[in-house]
Amino acid sequence: MSRHIAPLGLLLILLSCADETALNPLECRIQTFARKNTRESVAVTYELRASGEYQLNRWYYYGPQGRVSVENPQPPLIVTVTLGPNDSIYAGARGRVTEGSLRVSYRAVAADTLFEASDLCTQNLNATPILP
Questions:
Q1: Is 2 part of a structural domain of the chain?
Q2: Domain assignment present for 77
Q3: 42-65 pLDDT, tens digit each
Q4: Which ranges of the chain have pLDDT less than 50?
Q5: What global pTM score does this model have?
Q6: How many domains does the chain have?
Q7: Cβ(85)–Cβ(40) below 8 Å
C-alpha cells in the first residue's frame, strides 16, 4: 500500500505548483500636465495609444471650444487643433488594463516654443514594457 502513496503524493505536489498567475484589471485614470496657452495661437496634437489587453471608456482633450470627450474610443487616435491665447492644453483617459498599457499625450509647437506632456498606465505580468 505504501507503494501507491508516494506517487500519489508526488503528483499532488506537482499539481499544486502549476503556474496559474492571472492579472486583475488595473483601473487607469491618466491625465497630462495641464497648462494654459501663453502664445497668440498654437497647434496642439493630442494622441491616444493603447496596447495589449485593455478597455477604454473615455478619452478627452481640450479644443478651442473647451473639453472634447470621446466615449469608447478606438486607438490609436490623433487629433490636431489650433488653440488661442489662454486656452487650456490638457488630455486624459479612463479605462482598465489587464496586461498592456494606455497612453495619452500632447505636443504643442509655436514659433520658438515646444510644450509636451504625457501619462501612462501599464500593467504587465513580465518586465517587458509594451509602449516606450
A1: no
A2: yes
A3: 999 999 999 999 999 999 999 999
A4: 2, 8, 10-12, 14-18
A5: 0.78
A6: 1
A7: yes
The most distant pair of C-alpha atoms in the chain lies apart, rounded to whole Å, by 89
Q: Say which residues have a Cβ less than 8 Å from residue 127's Cβ, sequence separation at least 6.
A: none
Q: What is the DSSP string of 5-63?
A: HHHHHHHHHHHHT-----PPPEEEEEEPPPEE--SS-EEEEEEEEEEEEEEEEEEEEEE
C-alpha cell at 2: 505504501
CB 89 within 8 A of CB 1: no
Domain span at residue 43 reads 21-123
User: What Rg, from alpha-carbon coordinates, does the chain have?
Assistant: 23
Q: For residues 48 and 76, give the distance between their C-alpha atoms in angstroms, rounded to a whole number.
A: 6
